Amino acid sequence: MQKKTLLNALCLAAPLLFPTLAFAAASAPVATQPRQSMAAGEHAEHGEPVGAGGAEVKDKTSGGRGKFMAWTAFPILKIKMGSEGRERRVVTVIPQGIAANSIDAYSNDIKDAKGHRQLPLDMAGAKLDKPEAGGFHWLVAREELDGEVRVASTVHFFSNPGKNPTAMFMQQKHELEIIPQPYPREHSRYRADEDWKFLVRFNGKPFASQWVRLETQNGTRTNFVSDAQGVITVHLPGDFKAEAEQKNADSHSHGRRGADFVLATKYIDGGKTYLTAFNGSYGPDAFDQRSLAMGLGFTLLGMIGAAPLLRQRKATKKPTDAGQTADASAVPETSKNKEA
After folding, report:
1. H helices within the chain, ranges in order?
2. Angle at 240 between CA 66 and CA 192, to 5 degrees
3. Using 50, 70 and 90 to split pLDDT, how confident is the model at 237?
4. Rounded CA gap, 136 and 157, in Å?
5. Nearest CA to 284 among 242, 244, 252?
6. I need a labelling partner for 243 at 20 to 30 A (CA). Which of 20, 38, 140, 166 fits?
7. What does the pLDDT look like over 11-33, one tens digit per residue?
8. Tens digits of per-residue pLDDT, 153-178?
């Protein structure tokens, strides 16, 4: 009888559980699928970036700034957080896949005399000093050799909000650029199963029909093509492993799951090849951990709500129910009064 009642309680909780899961699935945006084929003539001018495929190769261009197995062949900038004391955190920018002599840093205050500064590189990387204004910083490394220009860019945010970074993002820094439209604001981040827009620009003008390659640290490889306004809509993939596998694979996650991604594109103009890449990090879908927890929570609420029904059923149970023989203690009080 108790098993039957427990089953009924679970049935009561089911209408609450499944709409929650359905809402989580319905709220995940649908990916914008790019064209997967293009005529050979289009490839010649707006070709798919070289190095696509994401083979794991050992980085030989970081000058000994860290031994690692790269997850992409495109140039990227890694941010390493350190500490020199309780009140000072050191931010180190480490280029990977690109041989640069310095790192250019642009603050969100473009009118500041120190808004654009060059950070010298050493064996450990380039130290990014925190300005008084704080806020967003655009970091970029450039390598130019034998008619090829390679650029790696990323964004770092300091705790103080600072000024609106839109003007800084739109400021032209190199010939071929990939610019977030917009970038996640403070206390936010890129997440899986979300759509984000990026502007592809050449010499300061929107670049239409340009191939852009997406590669993620978790193994996703896909392509996008910019529209007439030079904009691509990137659907970040939900390619995270199970929680247990993620912890085993990455012992430095410190409880916050995340992975890196890079967007890259290449263009040939005037006998010179331009390759630019923008990298960042993204987290799991916002509903990745909540859906199961919410479902279990509603199930538990349903069981708690069914508890009074259990007690009421026991109190009103007939003596002969389920073939049991009535005893004197089961006689209702009114019957005892009549006998008296």
Report:
1. 2-26, 40-45, 166-170, 243-249, 290-315, 333-339
2. 100
3. very high
4. 4
5. 242
6. 20
7. 444 433 443 333 333 333 333 33
8. 999 988 776 678 889 999 999 999 99
